[in-house]
Design brief:
- By secondary structure, the protein is mainly alpha-helical.
- Helices cover about 75% and strands about 5% of the residues.
- The chain has 15 helices and 3 strands.
- A 3-stranded antiparallel beta sheet has the order 1-3-2.
- Strand 2 (about 50) and strand 3 form a beta hairpin.
- The protein starts with a helix and ends with a helix.
- About 35% of the residues are buried.
Amino acid sequence: RLRTGKVIAQLGATIGRHFSYALLQAVAQLDEVMLQHELSRLVEAEIIYHRGVPPQATYTFKHALIQDAAYQSLLKSTRQQYHQRIAQVLEAQFPETTEAAPELLAHHYTEGGLIEQAIAYWQRAGEHASDRSAYLEAISHFTTGIEILKTLPETPERTQPALTLHIALGTALQHAKGHAAPEVEHAYTQARELCQQVGETPQLVPILFGLWRYYVTRSQFHTAHELGDTLLRLAQHGDDPALMVIAHSALGTTCLWLGALPAARLHIEES
């Protein structure tokens, strides 16, 4: 029965259970007097609560079910347009939010059907979580990005972001579940297969090293040795001193556990 207020409630529900006046105003594109009037009506009807006064005010739906009812009452096409508009406004006008909570933009771009932008922000969200050592959160973000990427047609352009996401997922899984977790092998194996599609790429190094740590931790030393040999060939081919350190260190450790002590000493001294 609130008419214009219903539209405001639906738009607020699309933003989330909590939303700021500043973001709602930027997205709603309504006259400020009308917007404040309709928000006051929603508050009086106890559909939403508020703290502060505009333009610093924030609003919260009284109950998650009310938010859900307002959201579900939208046509799918309208809902998608709202999500697109929210994501674009956040990106253009709220750089602090974009920096601090990229998962918000990832969510809105996903629901808005802008998949390529969504994938980029899921990756950023995962990296942001990893930087805070929130590895379970990072795993969730990277996995979501990978799943969404699968909805796109299989093209060469899809391979590179998939590769980046799988490498990042492998690293996060190592931190959260340990080097020997089966999920770690799966993530890095998928990444290695993607590398074969891309061709020679420096990203092969963290993949091989991640797999090496997986196999050496599980005492599968012969497989680990083969990976160390591959790392060393890459280092020699690319004349990369940093990679030489990694390769000789990996081979030295593997040879030690295999009982090949002279070879282990040689590689460790080289490292």
